[in-house]
Each structure stands twice: as structure tokens, then as C-alpha cells.
Amino acid sequence: MKSKIGVLLVQVGYDKDPDRVLEKALSMVDGAAKQYNMLDIVCMPELYYEGDKTRFLEAWRACSRRNHVNIITGSTLVYPCSQDKAMPDPAYPPCSYDM
After folding, report:
1. 57 with 93: CB under 8 angstroms?
2. Which of 4, 15, 45, 64 has its CA 20 to 30 A from that of 26?
3. In the CATH scheme, what is the code of domain 6-98?
4. What's the chain's average pLDDT?
């Protein structure tokens, strides 16, 4: 059993291009996950992305799976799951939850 939980708090600066902000945030999380082996939870600012929500959620779902972390992206929780869009498995919950 783990005795510690690794938490990463990310602060992202403003940019007129929302996709650039998203890519920067994803890069920060990927880098931290490689550097710190015990990363469990990533917390993003409440309102930092104003682009396409579908692209946003798909990018964070992939990041969550890739790094095996739970991500709180402002008001949406994204966590690793093995649900396949083409073949949904009722044994696994959805990969995101709007809070």
C-alpha cells in the first residue's frame, strides 16, 4: 500500500490560442510524470481553456491513460479507463465526470 500520494498543481499562463495553452499544459504533465515516478493526481486551474471541449477532453483522457494519473481539469475529472468508444464496456465507468 502506498504511504504517499503524488499531487501536481499546474499553473498555465494565458495565450490567445487555446490549443497552444492545452499543448503546453499537456507537455507539463507529461514531463512531470516522467520526472516523478509517484504522480497520482494532477490539478489544473478552474478556467484556463476556452477551445473545443471535445478536443480538450480527448487530449486529457489520452494524457491520463498515458501517465496513469487522475486529472482534475478545472471542473472536470479525467481518469484512466479502458473504455473503447467503438465497443463500450459497462464494467468500466466513463473516462470523465463533470463536477
Report:
1. no
2. 4
3. 3.50.50
4. 78
Rounded CA-CA distance 80/62 in Å is 8
Distance CA 91, CA 71 (A): 21
21 grid coordinates: 495553452
pLDDT of 98 reads 52
Predicted TM-score (pTM) of the model is 0.73
Name, in order, each residue with C-beta under 8 angstroms of 99's C-beta and a sequence gap of 6 or more. Answer: 75, 76, 77
Q: What is d(CA 50, CA 92) in angstroms, rounded to the nearest whole number? A: 29
Nearest-angstrom CA–CA distance, 43 and 89 = 27
